[in-house]
Amino acid sequence: MRPLLFLAFASAWNRRTTLGLMAISIGLSVMLLLGVEQLRTQARESFSQSISGTDLVVGARTSPIQLMLYAVFRLGDATHNIRWSSYQTISQHPSVSWSVPISLGDSHRGFAVIGTTTDYFEYFRYADRRLLAFSSGKPFVDIFDAVVGADVAQQLGYQLGDSIILNHGAGGMGLSDHADKPFRVSGILKRTGLSVDRSVHISLEAIEAIHLDWQGGAPMPGLSIPAEYVRKFDLAPKEITAIFIGLKSRAGVFQMQRYINQYKTEPLLAVLPGVALDELWSVVSIVEKSLLAISALVVGVGLSGLVAVVLAGLGERRRELAVLRSVGAGPGVVFMLLAIEGLMVVVAGSLIGLSGLMVLSMFATPILETHLGISLATWTLSAESWKLLLIVMATGFLVSLIPGYRAYRISLADGLTPRL
Amino acid sequence: MRRVMHFMRLILIAVIPSLISVPMTSAHESTAHVHGRATLEVAIEGGSVQISLDSPLDSLVGFERAPRNEKERQLVREMSRKLRQSDHTFIFTPQSQCRLESVQLESAVIEPGLLAADSDSNVGKDLDRSSTNSPDVHSELSATWHFQCAVPESLQGIKVSLFQHFPSLKRIDAAVVGPKGQSRTRLSPKSTLLKW
Question: Which residue of A212, A365, A405, B155 has the lowest C-beta tally within 10 Å?
């Protein structure tokens, strides 16, 4: 077997340009296939980790998926808010263990600003019931304290005590700032890999305070309430965007959901985050499957290219094969040589694809995290990906048997004097 | 690259909710009434398993009003009998040793006596509820089963064979809250296994 391997390698090395290009094209197709699969599984993982500790998410009545997207993943916007009085009633329900209100809408240099209470840091859980942890500082105490996520601190270079200015709405050119009321960074959170990393957390009272002298979405002309006087006003929140709820008994979630959905004073919607995510995936799965099918087709194209190249090369190699026959190699050996060659190209292609994927995901991970909130684990392949890779290699080996068989036939018929 | 990502994000925001807004049926109160579709809620905590079914009455008995004659009353009694024999309806992992504790059946248009376990053929005869209900009102049946499992650790799934007993039922959207968190499964006559 060893001399055969050597012979196959030496012969392939002789034609390294063509076969090398073939390996690269197979590599690219493998990269695409595995990339789609990785993105698919890890996006699910990352999404479901963000909410693993929350029993119910409550918002204004809308589509459950939309509520999940804006409340948990900060994608899209809320259509309506919830009255503060509704929050108070719901949070005092006997089966509620903890509840965290959040208020969205403002931003800080592209990062979302979340108005909430200190309960957020105490109760919000993710990834198998882990709590949020501070890498430095502590939760907000004063009205103008802000707790920033790991990405915010890193990308904008913030440290404890730094002064920051929030933007109204999505921020950007032409939109007003809350420049008259700067905030102080009181805490920096540890990295979680979730949307929390890209958020600035302030108290609900602070959200009220920065909008005291605003009306109809713009600062009131001629009226400005300086930061030192806001404490004299009633800063009790009037509206919030969503509530995260943890229950005392997990099984009571359906009763609680019914109670909130039938809430009389205001149309509210309570969703079970795990159930809503499954619904989201069942819709997205059509897209996922077609992406996967397209990349499988691309791999198919790559492999048939391989067969074509090796078959076309057979014509040139008739003399080589005849010489091998003359020194005593049987047709079986010729068959094996060709099959080994095909397998080598496929394995090389898969390796190229794998390393390409690693390099690509190293570059793509930060971009995906910032824009879509999906965190990718760069170096791990899921079991499903390994399976796909094995299938590609096995198919590659099987199709390279075709030129092997052809060579076998030729070497039987040609004898020592092939007509070229 | 930034611009591309921004564009992708916009697509995600714009497309997903619009795709989803049609088949959403999880808001309980405003659950759409679609004949052939039912919702199932399964809550597992410790050894206690509670299953609630909400189904259009039409999918279970073929009409959505109070029964008008003996034949229709018989259909209701038949349905009640099938739903109460839930050993045949929900098949648990045998090792978990789950036993049925109680069943509750409720419908706004059917007299409770007719749904009761020991309903005899005289119940409901003298009542004529149909006159008070307009015939084109949609109505539902809600059923709640309570099971107790001796070995909850070995409970791995529930086979739901409601489709066999009620052929008009085509789809069940099941939400499960169990030891491994929340999940959702769509059941059909071809796939009847609830796993978590």
Answer: A405
Torsion angles phi and psi, residue A210, rounded to 5: -75, -15
User: How many other C-beta atoms can be found within 10 angstroms of the C-beta atom of residue B119?
Assistant: 18
Residues, chain A, total? 420
Test A279 with B184 for CB contact under 8 angstroms: yes
Instruction: Please answer whether residues A400 and A339 qualify as being in contact, where contact means their C-beta atoms are separated by less than 8 angstroms.
Output: yes
Residue numbers in A near B45 (CB within 8 A): 249-251
Structure letter (DSSP) for residue B1: -
The per-residue pLDDT for range A343-396, each reduced to its tens digit, is 899 999 999 999 998 888 888 877 776 666 666 666 677 788 889 999 999 999
Q: Which residue of chain B comes nearest to A372, CA vs CA? A: B9
Quote the CA–CA distance of B69 and B89 in Å, as a whole number. Answer: 28
| Residue A198, token pair as written in the block | 């890209």
User: 3-state secondary structure string, chain A?
Assistant: CHHHHHHHHHHHHHCHHHHHHHHHHHHHHHHHHHHHHHHHHHHHHHHHHCCCCCCEEEEECCCHHHHHHHHCCCCCCCCCCEEHHHHHHHHCCCCEEEEEEEECCCEECCEEEEEECCHHHHHCEECCCEECCEEEECCCCCCCEEEECHHHHHHHCCCCCCEECCECCCCCCCCCECCCCCEEEEEEECCCCCHHHHEEEEEHHHHHHHCCCEECCEECCCCCCCHHHHHHCCCCCCEECEEEEEECCHHHHHHHHHHHHCCCCCCEEEECHHHHHHHHHHHHHHHHHHHHHHHHHHHHHHHHHHHHHHHHHHHHCHHHHHHHHHCCCCHHHHHHHHHHHHHHHHHHHHHHHHHHHHHHHHHHHHHHHHHHCCCCCCCCCCHHHHHHHHHHHHHHHHHCHHHHHHHHHHHHHHCCCCCC
- Measured between CA atoms, the residue of chain A closest to residue B4 is A371
**Chains A, B: CB contacts under 8 A, how many?**
105
Domain ranges for chain B, please list them: 32-195
Please give the Cα distance from A334 to A412 (Å, whole number). 10
Looking at residue A287, its amino acid is V
Write down the pLDDT at residue A271: 93
Residue A198's closest CA among A164, A135, A152? A152
- For B112, the 3-state DSSP assignment is helix
Cα separation values, A143 from A147, A177, A185, Å? 12, 18, 12
**C-alpha span between A205 and A64 (Å, rounded):** 28
Q: Supply the pTM of this predicted model.
A: 0.76
Q: What is the pLDDT of residue B30?
A: 46
Sketch the domain layout of chain A as residue ranges: 2-47+284-414, 51-279
Q: What does the mean pLDDT of chain A come to? A: 85
